[in-house]
Description:
116 residues; two-stranded antiparallel ribbon; 70% helix; 3% strand
Amino acid sequence: MHFKEQLKAKQQLINARLTELLDSSNIPKVIYEPMKYSVDAGGKRIRPILTMVITEALGGNVKDAIDFGCAIEFIHTYSLIHDDLPAMDNDDYRRENQQITEFLVMLLLYLQEMLC
């Protein structure tokens, strides 16, 4: 199998597992949808792929490394969202996709109202 085919196969495996992890959680729909939107926004999935490749190179079980790699990808996605917040870069788009920052601000205001 060529490198590009291997990369694509690993990306598909990671994307499927990211979806499984999100779908199996008990996250309220109002929070789940923007999380899913952000995770599905695309990307090369280099961090989880590196986790898998390094695990394999060190003789470990790649299946054991997938969830760890997905956790790193979730943290990376969080960092992108955080970076686009108004107090930071205040970007409305990433990879030509609308960001969820307006939704997050509205959600935070809503939660604040509920708590007060």
